[in-house]
Amino acid sequence: MSAQGMIAPGFSEPVFQSQAAFRALLAALSEPGTLQRVAAEITPPEGLATATATALLALADYETPVWLSEALRNGAAGAWLRFHCGVALVDDPAKAAFAVIDGAAGEPSLSAFNLGTDQFPDRSTTVIVQVAALEGGPAITLAGPGILGSRDIAPQGLRPGFVEELRENGALYPLGVDVLLAHGEGLIGLPRSTQIEEVR
User: Fold this and answer.
1) C-alpha distances out from residue 151 to 27, 44, 69, 168, Å
2) I want to staple 169 with a disulfide (CB 3.0 to 4.6 A). Which of 23, 62, 176, 193 is the partner?
C-alpha cells in the first residue's frame, strides 16, 4: 500500500467542519480556561489528539509552518498534515506559526517559539500542548481579559516548571505565545494575555 493510501481522511465537509472548529478555537482563546469541544468526526493520525488534528485542519496551510517533535514529524502525523494542509514542517521552533508539544516532555520550552515582535505581536507561535487530561490535576487559577474575576483549570500531564513558563509568557504581553491545551476532543485556551494567579 502506498504512503498516500495509508493517510486517514480529513474533513468530510470541509467548509462546515472548519467553521465549527474555528468557532470552538475562537471561544477557547476569547474565554480563557473554559473547556471547548470540537467534534469534527475525524480519525486523527497517531500522535495527535482529535482536538489537535481538527485545529490544524482548520487553521494550518502552506503559509503557516508547523513544528512537531521529530517522532511526529517523521511519522503518520507529519504525513497527514503535509497531505491535508500542505504545511511546511520546520525544525526550528522559532520559525513555526503553529506547534504541537507533549505537555510532559522536557522540551522545547515555550520561550523557544516565536514570541512575536513589537510591530507584529500577533505573528507569534500558537502552541498546542497535548496533555494527559484536562481535568483532575493541580488547580491553576487564571485571570486576565475574557475572565470575570478568576477561573480555575486543572490539567494533568504538564512537565515540572511548565506553569512557571506560562507565568513568564504572560509577563511578556503583548508579546508571547498563545497556548491551547488539548486532550481528546477538548481544548482549553491560554492566550498570552492570561495571567497565572495561583497554583494549588
Assistant:
1) 15, 30, 31, 19
2) 176
Domains in the chain with CATH codes: 11-199 (3.40.50.11310)
- What pLDDT, on the 0 to 100 scale, is given for residue 89? 98
| 174: its cell numbers | 503583548
| DSSP-derived secondary structure for 42-97 | --PPTT--HHHHHHHHHH--TTS-EE--HHHHTSHHHHHHHHHH-PPEES-GGG-S
Spatial separation of the C-alpha atoms in residues 124 and 96, rounded to whole Å: 8
Cα–Cα distance measured from residue 17 to residue 142, given in angstroms and rounded to the nearest whole number: 30
List Cα–Cα distances, 166 to 43, 63, 178, in angstroms: 30, 27, 10
Of 166, 160, 168, give the one whose Cα is nearest residue 181.
166
In the prediction, which pLDDT does 3 show? 44
For residues 29 and 21, what is the distance between their CA atoms, to the nearest angstrom?
13
- 3-class state of residue 198 by DSSP: strand
Interacting residues of 79 by C-beta distance below 8 A, sequence separation 6+ = 3, 6, 7, 45
pLDDT value of position 1:
36
Low-confidence ranges of the chain (pLDDT < 50): 1-5
Q: What pLDDT score does 71 carry? A: 96
